[in-house]
Design brief:
164 residues; alpha/beta; six-stranded mixed beta sheet; 5 helices; 6 strands; 43% helix
Length: 164
């Protein structure tokens, strides 16, 4: 699967469905960041959010932070908790270690959504924009709980200094 096919998206009956595939790293997260900014910067057409990680093989903390930002938005809009599907034991271990079960309904089962999905391309971000994305993602993670704050605050502080 090519980098441009790592992020698939569909809005079906006011359900925003994200399918994330392959290695999900900060280096290829700009398309996801851009999509989140577009979707949630205006009144969203989403009444429910579903994220399918069943074809993901790796996920870094920046991507987990982007997921946390989706959950935070849903909470702010009084939407139901987003549903996250994942059957990969290593990815699930990471999600639980970062307490994402507090923000998501995690379902450790396969999905069989049969709908046409749009490919979301990686966006060209400057070094500054990429740094801002990484900072926002990690701020969303530390906002989840004190454990994440202890783990990621040094990185957030460093990024804040570098991006001044």
């Amino acid at each position: 699967m090519s980098e441009s096919q790592q992020i698939l998206f569909a809005n079906v009956d006011n359900c925003c469905y994200f399918k994330l595939c392959g290695e999900l790293r900060y280096t290829n997260a700009t398309g996801m960041d851009d999509l989140i900014e577009q979707l949630f910067s205006e009144p969203t057409p989403c009444a429910q959010v579903v994220i399918d990680l069943n074809q993901a093989t790796f996920i870094d903390s920046t991507y987990v932070g982007l997921l946390a930002s989706i959950a935070r938005y849903c909470q702010q809009q009084q939407m139901p908790k987003p549903t996250l599907f994942s059957t990969d034991s290593e990815i699930n271990e990471l999600l639980y270690s970062l307490c994402l079960e507090q923000a998501f309904q995690i379902v450790e089962k396969p999905t069989n959504v049969d709908t046409e999905m749009s490919h979301i391309d990686t966006q060209a971000y400057s070094e500054q924009e990429q740094g801002q994305m990484i900072l926002r993602a990690h701020q969303a993670l530390i906002d989840l709980n004190d454990k994440n704050k202890a783990e990621f605050q040094p990185l957030v502080s460093m990024l804040q200094q570098q991006l001044k």
